[in-house]
Design goal:
This protein is α/β, with parallel strands linked by helices and 119 residues long. It has a single domain (3-114), classed as Alpha-Beta Complex (Spore Coat Polysaccharide Biosynthesis Protein SpsA, Chain A). It contains 5 helices and 4 strands. The protein has helices at 13-26, 45-53, 68-78, 99-105, 108-114; strands at 3-9, 32-38, 58-61, 83-86. Strands 3-2-1-4 form a 4-stranded parallel β-sheet, sandwiched between helices. β1, α1 (13-26) and β2 (32-38) form a beta-alpha-beta unit. α1 (13-26) packs parallel to α2. 30% of the residues are buried. Residues 107-117 have low confidence and may be disordered.
Length: 119
């Protein structure tokens, strides 16, 4: 696994759904996983997202609103990727994450490594 994408949700169904759809639609050349940590969203958004994308993400129910850093650490503990991308759906511009991130910030050597097939 090359990249673990961690997204934290708290009552952000529409933003998080758009970010997940963008990742699954546009990320083709990377071996990646998506970890969604839900901070016990009272609006039920975490459960709705789990139902929509259950076969394509690792879902973690935090059991309460732990805050951003503690929630990220829950996701990080489950991450299997060599690299971690912490994606805040509020600031994501819905382009090709995580692929675009590595195009912009990765070295050529890193890019060659990340383009290999998932094993």
């Amino acid at each position: 696994m090359d990249v673990s994408v961690i997204i934290i949700n708290y009552n952000t169904f529409d933003l998080t759904k758009a970010a997940l759809e963008s990742i699954f639609l546009h990320t083709k050349e990377l071996c990646y996983e998506v970890i969604l940590v839900d901070n016990a969203s009272p609006d039920g958004s975490g459960e709705r997202l789990r139902e929509l994308f259950e076969d394509r993400l690792v879902y973690i129910q935090a059991g309460g609103n732990l805050g951003t850093s503690r929630s990220f650490n829950l996701g990080l503990a489950r991450a299997a990727g060599k690299y971690v991308l912490w994606l805040n759906p509020r600031y994501s511009d819905q382009r090709q994450f995580p692929q675009e991130t590595f195009r912009l910030y990765g070295t050529e050597r890193t890019m060659r490594h990340l383009r290999r097939k998932c094993s």
